[in-house]
Amino acid sequence: MKKYFLLLLLLVSIVSLTIGCGNQDAKTPNDPASGDEPMKVGFIYVGPIGDAGYTYAHDLGAEFMKKELEDSVELIKVENVPENAADTERVLNQLIDQGCKIIFATSFGYMDSVIKVAEENKDVVFLHCSGYKTAENVGTYFGQIEQPRYLSGIAAGKMTKTNIIGYVAAHQIPECIRGINAFTMGARSVNPDVKVKVVWTNTWFDPPKEKDAGTSLLQDGADVIAQHQDTPGPMQAAEEGGAYGISYNSDMSKFAPKAVITGPIWNWGPYYVKTVKAVQDGTWKSEKYWGPMSDGVVDLAPIADFVPEDVKQLIETEKGRILSGELNIFTGPIKDQTGADKVPAGTTMTDDEILNMDWFVQGVEGSPK
C-alpha cells in the first residue's frame, strides 16, 4: 500500500508541476493579447461622419486611434446627436450601458450633460471637446486652431481684390469669435484695408443654409469666403460665384478646387491615441488640453497651386514664427471693432481671456452677441 501511495503522490506532483509551468506563459489582464475584452471607447458626434468637416475630422482621429491600438479597443460611435440635455444624456447613458469606459463628447453643447452624467458614473472617463468644465473624471480638449486661422487670414488678405472677405460663422460662442478675430488679424497684417463681414447661421451642419449664407456675402461684395461650419457649402458658393474660399476642419479643396485657397484643419488621431493609452494604463488625470500647432493637433491644409509663390513663402515664414514661439497672435496692440484699445502693446492675452473672448477685433463687421 505504501508503494501505491508513494506512486500516487509522485503522479500528483508531476501534474501540478506541469500546470504550474503552463501558467508561466499566461498573459496579464492588461495585455491586449491576453484574450480579455477590449476597452470600449464611445464617440458622440453632432453631425454625420460624412459631413466632410468637423465630425469627419474627429472620425478620422477615432479610426487612427483604433488602427494604432488594434484589438485593445472597440469603438462605438453615435452620429447626429442634438445638443440638448435630453438627447445628450440619453446617448451618454446608452454608451455607458454598452460598457464604454471612456467617452469622447465632441461638441460644445454637450458640456453640461457630460458633467451631470459623469457625476453619476465615476468609473467612466469623459473627454469633452471645446468645453471649459472639468471634474475628477472629466477632462476637456481642443487645439489652438486660431494659429492656422491666422495663417489662412494672411492668404485671404493677399488674394482679395475687393478687400471684402465674407465669413460664414456657426454660433456666437467664444470658439467662433476668437477664430474670426485671429483670421481678421492675419488678413489685416498683410492688407490693412481688409474688412471681414460675418454672417451667423446658428448651425453646425445645414448645407443649404450655409451655402446660402456664402452666396449672400458674395452679393455684398466679398471675393473671398471663409467659414466656421462643418460642411463645404460656403466653399461651393464661392466657386459658383467665381470667388476664393478658406475652408475649415479638413481639406475641402476637392469640393471646390477652383476656389479653396487653403484652410485650418484638425488632426485628432495622436491625441486620441495618447489619451486612451493613459486610461488603459491607469495614468490618466483630468486636464484642460489646448494644443498648439507644434503638437500637430492643428495645421493648415495644402495651399492651392493657383496661389502665387511669394504668398506661399510668406505663409511658411509666419508659420515658422508661430511654431518657434516667436509669434503669439494675441499679443497687443489689439483694438476692438470700435477702434478702442483692447490689449496694450507688449501684453499677451492669457489663455482664460482668449478662451472666453466675446468681442470682435478692428476690421470685423457684425455682432459677436
From TrEMBL:
The keyword S-adenosyl-L-methionine does not apply. InterPro entries: ABC-Purine-Binding (IPR052910), Peripla_BP_I (IPR028082), PnrA-like (IPR003760). Residues 40-320 form the ABC transporter substrate-binding protein PnrA-like domain. SUPFAM superfamilies: Periplasmic binding protein-like I (SSF53822). Keywords: Signal. This is BMP family ABC transporter substrate-binding protein. It holds the Pfam family Bmp. It comes from Dehalobacterium formicoaceticum. Residues 1-18 form the signal peptide. PANTHER family: ABC TRANSPORTER SUBSTRATE-BINDING PROTEIN. The keyword Signal applies.
